[in-house]
Design brief:
Elements: H1 3-20, E1 22-36, E2 43-48, E3 52-58, E4 64-74, H2 83-92, E5 100-108, H3 109-112, E6 121-128, E7 131-144, E8 148-158, H4 159-162, E9 178-189
Length: 190
Amino acid sequence: MNSYLLLLINLLLGATLVQADQKVLWSGTGDITFSGTSTLHDWAGKVAASPFSATVVYDESGRPQRIQAKVSVEAGKMDTAEPKRDENMKQALNVPIYPLIQASLDAPAEKIAADGKTPTRLPMTLMLLGKSHKIVAEISDWKLSAKKATFDLDFDVSMKASGISVPPVLIFIRVGDAVKVHASVTLTQN
């Protein structure tokens, strides 16, 4: 077999592989709430994620193979409805230096939906204060219609592990380490 024939076979196989993987873009939105505890009382807040895109790679049978997305939140828009707490939160998150909190996802579909149908877990990398943290969020209330998917997402963030230092208020009021994050996500196929 001459080298030209081998090259032609390789090109044809490569073309077949390209056709086998189909990328489909989805537009996403997310409404996020977060909550924590302190020695005085519990607290909570909300923020919207910036609109984002998610890419789903399908095989030739239409089965999802890989999912990729990057979601950003403007830390300065996090709102607890308490101006002094918001000011302390922005200071603790060093918003002028790190204005965005980002979560990125690039995972095989079987790590998200073990049964191949219903997503239950979402491994992500959370970028907070310029440092990356591996987290696994739990997915619930998954609903998929023709070109729209909705689901809820929950995970905890350890302030200590993330390098977030909140100064005590009035010396004795301290904030608990765990922040519970909940997101309601909507994806619409483009």
